[in-house]
Write a structure and sequence with these properties.
Layout: H1 2-28, H2 30-33, H3 38-64, H4 67-81, H5 84-94, H6 97-117, H7 121-147, H8 155-177, H9 186-203, H10 227-231, H11 251-254, H12 264-294, H13 298-313, H14 315-326, H15 328-351, H16 357-386, H17 391-420, H18 424-439
Helix pairs in contact: 1-8, 3-4, 3-7, 3-8, 3-9, 3-12, 4-7, 4-17, 5-7, 6-7, 6-9, 7-8, 8-13, 12-16, 12-17, 12-18, 13-16, 14-15, 14-16, 15-16, 15-18, 16-17
């Protein structure tokens, strides 16, 4: 056993060292990797991850006076996000990247206008689905402008900066949402439409005009990405936890699903699914739940979310160092315990009569949000360590599971919350997270080496460019 560890550790340390060096290189040379159209992605983050997560549940509940309707509308939005791979396939088939990219912002704006102009659940479901589909399309096309047009040596730093722009937009959007929670949400939704149209205007500035060196044409680009390097960059902390990028949510990974049965990766994938399913309801109802259950006004909860998300940005690199020192399995389980603690604080006032509900609600909410960078980085690392095939396909499966579990969890939660009230949310979340923790208990503290594919010698060594692009991922 000692001999095996001595062989594995240097390689694992090299991979993490290469990932950290790659991230530092991107941070110290921003002009090389940032493009003007990234501002459109920042504006998208402001709207779909900052303003709408706060405003949409408040708007729907205020008009329908039905908690179940809130869940159905938010579920339709998340099902719209699941169209992300279809946008990528269509773009690569018809070569209309630019039109689809700008059109996705228009579709998102149309969905937002639908929430303003239409009334009734069927109309809202269509509008919410369009909103989610447009948002997912913009995220997918933004990433394709990198993996299909830029040299492979620049993929990770460019995508890292892209998702950092989006995460910064979310924080700004949450702060702005705090100013629009007074009761009349129509002006805020018009602001969302304005931002989306502005994103269309700036989204065409500096877009690449023709495909570049996108790597091996016989394999999906997802297989060549250094996912550990990307995990070091701040990601979008969506209310649902979905990280919308085509290199994560891809059909190539879904085709590998049967190979996970009976493997440690399969058990971890199930843990990941249950974890997302368990917490989905909370992120659909949090402005309403915190206001009515804990006396925390919507503008206050938006500011707590913004400040905690901003603080969480700094946790990405720290978490990566913790996974290198203690192993991704241990850090992943710590992230689950952190979220269980947060939901425990939210459940306590419903179980025991006590004062200080607002304080418990604020602390619990902050713990739930701050756990996402810990879970995101450690989950990516753990999935990449346990996968029986390529890391790109493995992370694709993780995010597909995250997206599907979130959409299903939101829809299932509607009748439960409508019947038994907000206390069902932390109670079911704790139960689900406990199951997820149990499923993840056998996740190793440190990853195990994987064999390279026959006929592909050196697949687990640095890429042919001398390691400058990070590590070439092993294909299955």
């Amino acid at each position: 056993m000692e001999t095996r560890r001595s062989k594995v550790a240097p390689f694992d340390d090299f991979r993490r060292g290469a990932a950290l060096a790659l991230a530092l290189r991107a941070i110290t040379a921003p002009r090389r990797y940032i493009r003007p159209w990234y501002l459109a992605y920042l504006l998208l983050g402001m709207v779909t991850s900052g303003l709408l997560p706060v405003l949409l549940p408040l708007t729907v509940e205020g008009l329908s006076h039905s908690l179940a309707t809130v869940a159905y509308v938010m579920g339709a939005y998340n099902f719209g996000l699941l169209t992300s791979p279809l946008w990528g396939m269509l773009a690569e088939r018809i070569k209309a990247y630019r039109k689809l990219f700008l059109g996705s912002f228009l579709l998102t704006a149309a969905g937002t206008l639908g929430m303003l102009a239409l009334r009734g659940l069927p109309s809202w479901l269509v509008a919410a689905f369009a909103l989610g589909a447009g948002s997912g399309g913009a995220a997918t096309l933004a990433t394709l402008f990198i993996v299909d047009f830029a040299p492979r040596t620049e993929w990770e730093p460019r995508i890292g900066w892209l998702q950092t722009f989006n995460a910064a937009g979310q924080v700004a959007g949450l702060m702005l949402a705090a100013a629009f929670t007074g009761g009349d949400f129509a002006p805020a939704l018009w602001v969302c439409v304005t931002f989306l149209l502005l994103a269309m205007a700036v989204g065409g500035i500096g877009l690449p005009g023709s495909p570049g060196a996108s790597g091996d044409a016989t394999e999906p680009p997802h297989l060549h990405l250094n996912v550990r390097a990307l995990a070091l960059f701040p990601k979008l902390i969506l209310p649902s936890g979905i990280d919308l990028h085509v290199y994560h949510l891809n059909l190539h990974g879904l085709r590998r699903l049967p190979q996970t049965l009976g493997t440690p990766f399969g058990r971890f994938l199930l843990s990941w699914f249950v974890f997302a399913f368990a917490v989905a309801a909370f992120f659909s109802y949090f402005p309403l739940m915190l206001a009515e259950g804990y006396g925390i006004a919507a503008h206050t909860s938006a500011m707590i979310y913004a400040l905690t998300a901003a603080l969480g940005i700094g946790l990405y690199v720290l978490t990566s160092r913790l996974t290198a020192r203690y192993g991704p399995g241990r850090v992943y389980r710590a992230g689950l315990v952190l979220r269980i603690s947060g939901f425990g604080l939210l459940l306590a006032p419903f179980v025991i009569a006590m004062g200080g509900r607002s304080l418990l609600g604020a602390l619990g909410f902050a713990l739930i949000v701050i756990a996402w960078p810990v879970l995101s980085v450690s989950g990516t690392d753990l999935g990449a360590s346990l996968t029986p095939f390529s890391e790109g396909a493995a992370v694709g499966l993780l995010n597909a599971a995250l997206a599907l579990a979130t959409a299903l969890g939101i829809v299932v939660s509607g009748p439960l919350v409508a019947r038994w009230g907000y206390e069902t949310i932390p109670a079911t979340a704790i139960a689900g997270l406990a199951v997820s923790l149990w499923l993840g208990m056998d996740a190793p503290s440190r990853g195990t080496p994987r064999r390279s594919r026959p006929g592909r010698p050196g697949a687990e060594h640095p890429a042919g460019d001398g390691g400058k692009s990070g590590l070439r991922l092993v294909s299955g």
